[in-house]
Amino acid sequence: MNSINYINNLSKDEFCNIFGNVFENTAWISEKTYNLKPFLDFDTIEKSFLSIYDQCDNGQFLEIFNSHPKLAVEKTLTKNSLKEQRSTGLYECTEQELNEFSNLNKEYKNKFNFPFIIAVSGKNKKEILDIFKARVKNDLNTEFQEAKKQVKKIALIRIKELFNKI
Description:
The chain is mainly α. The chain is built from 9 helices and no strands. The chain is 64% helix and 0% strand. The protein is globular and about 50 Å long.
């Protein structure tokens, strides 16, 4: 059985167990995506997830943003976030780097009312820290739009990884 047939034959619970964290701690998106079956191919799955996400209002986006962990300092992470952050060296920070991340996390959250979100895949901790320092200077609208883009990037990476495992 190919991957698409396998996915189309999953029960709602099975589908949500597999795809429930595509959007960090936001299982309702996978539940709504399930209702768009049958999927024709991988692109259809991606487009289905993104269409649900794109229909969110600003309050829902804010909830999704706030479901994301703080970089380098959050103690409780989903398996996805832990894997993604570990791959960048964020858990091998010097005390100075850890303090910088901690201070930036506080400053960013106080300024924007949601945590700094970045698709860390393919980046190292220095790149992430530099981007963090630049983005904390943005205005709310710019950063809200950037957070929406970054959440989408993370979701697309996760969908691809999950699809490749099936």
